[in-house]
Amino acid sequence: MSFKRFTLFFFVSTLIFLAACGGSDDADSAGDSESGGSEELSGSVAIDGSGTVYPLMARLAEEYMINEQQGVSVEVSRAGTSAGFEKFLIENGTDFNDASREIKEEEQAKADELGIEVQELKVALDGLTIVTHPGNDWATELTPEQVQGIFLGEYKQWSDIDDSWPSEDIKTYGPNENHGTYEFFYEEILEEQDLAEGIDLQQDYSTLVTLISEDENAIGFFGFGYYQSNQDTINAVSIDFGEGAVEPSLDTIAEDGPYADYTRPVFTYLNVNHAQEKPEVLDYAKYVLENTNNFAGETGFAPIPDEEAASQLEALEGIE
Predict the structure, then answer these.
(1) Which residue of 64, 197, 203, 306 shows the fewest CB atoms closer than 10 Å?
(2) Are residues 204 and 175 in the same domain?
(3) What is the pLDDT averaged over residues 282-305?
């Protein structure tokens, strides 16, 4: 089943009801929160950005509102990394921007111009995954050079790669320019060579999954999590980096794993100004770092080292 857009406002009304009915038990539960200490908070947290990071952040937000701070509403959206930064780097912008790439120099310059202090929080590791239609039983393994050739338009038909493969046109798909995954693919996988004309680029990842699952000659790319949650409708291509084909998995995309050439860190960026003004924003940032590794695997990410999460959490302690 693919990830679908959902709003977390539903949880807010439910949780307000629960808080009203729960009496002192709920207050005690909130008081025991690791991130919130004994303080029961209220208010709102606004998050936008990466569609890749969205499932992880939405899961964390759900748990936070149910089990940590029932008086705080956390809204998570997924405009894409670049589009999200546009909403983050404005006056009264979002509190967090999820990103499947690092902040760009021009984005940091915009933050400096506006007087916004930005703190990068690394939350997980993702494996860029090449996917095909489940009926494709020929292109089960590819080299990085073959992946490049497909998306640069050097191969028009499958038989151009291997003459034993079908003489059928290759149909290419991917996320559009709003997404950090597109930029990672362009910069790291294609080595800043322009994608071929005619590639079907989409804003919504669930749409990409559907298109690829319905086209036997399709091949596309996105984060591992969208493959993991749709294994019944799409295939993952193993990549031969020179020492045999490697299938993307939670083990292989781990730090220093054999899929490392296609692995990238993913982030959320915190508006420190907002964290200083709104205790619920800082509290949520701490909660994310305390719990991201608990939910990384189920949402399609490899965890970051515990010591790295602890180091970032310690840096948050200096925000006043």
Answers:
(1) 197
(2) yes
(3) 97
Pair 252, 143 in one domain = yes
Buried b (16+ CB within 10 A) or exposed e, 254-279: beebbbbebbbbbbbbbbbbbbeebb
Q: Which of 101, 90, 119 is nearest to 288 (CA)?
A: 119
Residue 265 bridge partners (DSSP): 125
Residues in the chain, how many? 320
What residues are paired with 125 via a beta bridge? 265, 302
Q: How many CB atoms lie within 10 A of CB 89?
A: 24
User: How does strand 245-246 pair with strand 238-240?
Assistant: antiparallel
Please check whether residue 158 lies inside any domain of the structure. yes
The DSSP H or E segment spanning 132 is strand 118-132
Write down the pLDDT at residue 189. 96
Confidence label for 27 from pLDDT (cuts 50, 70 and 90)? very low
- At residue 255, the pLDDT reads 84
- Letter for the amino acid at 135? G
CATH for 181: 3.40.190.10
Q: Give the phi and the psi of residue 119 in degrees, each rounded to 5.
A: -120, 125
Per DSSP, the three-state class of 281 is: helix
pLDDT digits (tens, 9 = 90+) for 114-125: 999 999 999 999
Confidence (pLDDT) at 29: 36
Domain range enclosing 162 = 126-263
Domain assignment present for 4: no
The reply to whether 83 and 186 lie within a common domain is no
Question: In the prediction, which pLDDT does 39 show?
Answer: 85
Of 222, 237, 263, the position where a domain reaches its end is 263
114 φψ region: left (φ > 0), alpha (ψ -120 to 50), beta (else) = alpha
Could you identify the residue written with the tokens 């003004």? Answer: 277
Total number of domains in the chain: 2
Q: Look at residue 248 and give its three-state secondary structure.
A: coil
